[in-house]
Amino acid sequence: MRQLLGALLLASVMPAFADTPALEELKLLSEHPVAGMDTGNLSGLAWCGDALWAVSDRDDDRLYRLDASAPIWQAEAESFVAPPAPVMPLPWGLRMRAWVSGLVRGGHLDFEGIACDAKGNRYLVSESRAAVLQVPPAADAQWLALPEGMVRQARASGMLLHFNSLLEGIAIDPAGERLWLAAEKERRGLLVVHHRNATWRCEGGCVLLSEGGQEQSPAALGGSLAPVDFSGLAFHQDKLFTLERQAHRICRRTAESGDVERCWSFAAEALTDERRYPLHYGVAEALAIDADGAWVGVDNGGHARGDGENRPVVWRFTAPAGGWGATQ
After folding, report:
1. What InterPro entries would the database entry show (predicted)?
2. Is the pTM of this model over 0.70?
3. Residue 151 belongs to some domain of the structure
């Protein structure tokens, strides 16, 4: 009887993976090692104008234009000066741990994502400061005056509570009027702010989505359980796309609520023996979406994968059958 009760209890807390249909696998079209990012740690991607741009969470004073004219891409640095960051309502303990981490590894601002609007403005999300830096193409960088209520609402919903599990992704609409941020894990979620009359504000609340729980990793990684997460965010055709590194998938979500509509897996291509990294390294951190496919950036932390490649890598996946708007 005790064994039966134990089995029933275990079944009640484990996700029902057996009932989840297999996801369509995205096809890898090409992959490109990135040279010129001396600190490595590619953490964000966005298509801006005529090129793909990247950021590193180890660099507080530059972003990178990726020259794709050769199979091995060259990262061309563009420098900027970030003014002092705003003090958002994060606990002193979280802010101090972020400061110490910056001293040890570099990257006090810990830029984890990049997005662009139609005017060419680049937006960099700082995980350590829970803030967003705007880098115009021909003006000084400046921090957005985001509402403090955004952080308070996120924390009240269970997000932004743990060190190194704060803001991990950013997306903006072409008009520069709606800005979304992704909270990484424990709990993960989506936030949105609106630009109205030269002011960023929460309209009807800044929290779109907040969820916890665990899910299984792909079979190639042993199927172990880990917290659900977001590691990248993109906006395309009025939809949000989330990069979910633990599950090795990309999901399409509504921009209004963050509800998931459909997901696609990239596990089959990412987890070949040649592309596998030591455990806990080589994770998908960056996402950009266009009509023809997805760009996924891999943060290798300076570690070599199975074939010996030790530079950051960008994968190009083709769009799924029927396009990103497909319903089934």
Report:
1. 6-blade_b-propeller_TolB-like (IPR011042), Phytase-like_dom (IPR027372)
2. yes
3. yes
Q: Which residue has the tokens 């209890």?
A: 9
Domain around 231: 33-318
Evaluate whether residue 75 is within a structural domain.
yes
Cis peptide before 187, with omega less than 30 degrees from 0? yes
To which H or E segment does residue 34 belong? strand 28-35
Amino acid letter at 272?
A: T
Structure confidence at residue 175 (pLDDT): 97
- Taking a C-beta distance cutoff of 8 angstroms, is the pair 92, 74 a contact? no
Q: How far apart are the first and last CA of the chain?
A: 43
Indicate whether 127 belongs to any domain: yes
**C-alpha torsion sign, points 120, 125, 130, 136:** negative
Which amino acid appears at position 328 of this protein? Q
Three-state secondary structure readout of 234-276:
EEECCEEEEEECCCCEEEEEECCCCCEEEEEECHHHHCCHHHC
CATH number at residue 236: 2.120.10
Number of domains the chain is built from: 1
- Report the C-alpha gap between 328 and 309 in whole angstroms: 36
Digit-coded pLDDT (tens) for 228-237: 999 999 999 9
Give the amino acid at 327: T
* Amino acid at residue number 313: V
Task: Show the low-confidence residues of the chain (pLDDT under 50).
Answer: 1-19
- Residue 19 maps to a domain: no
Q: Which two tokens stand for residue 16?
A: 């029902």
Q: What is the pLDDT of residues 90-125, one digit of tens each?
A: 999 888 988 898 888 888 999 999 999 999 999 999
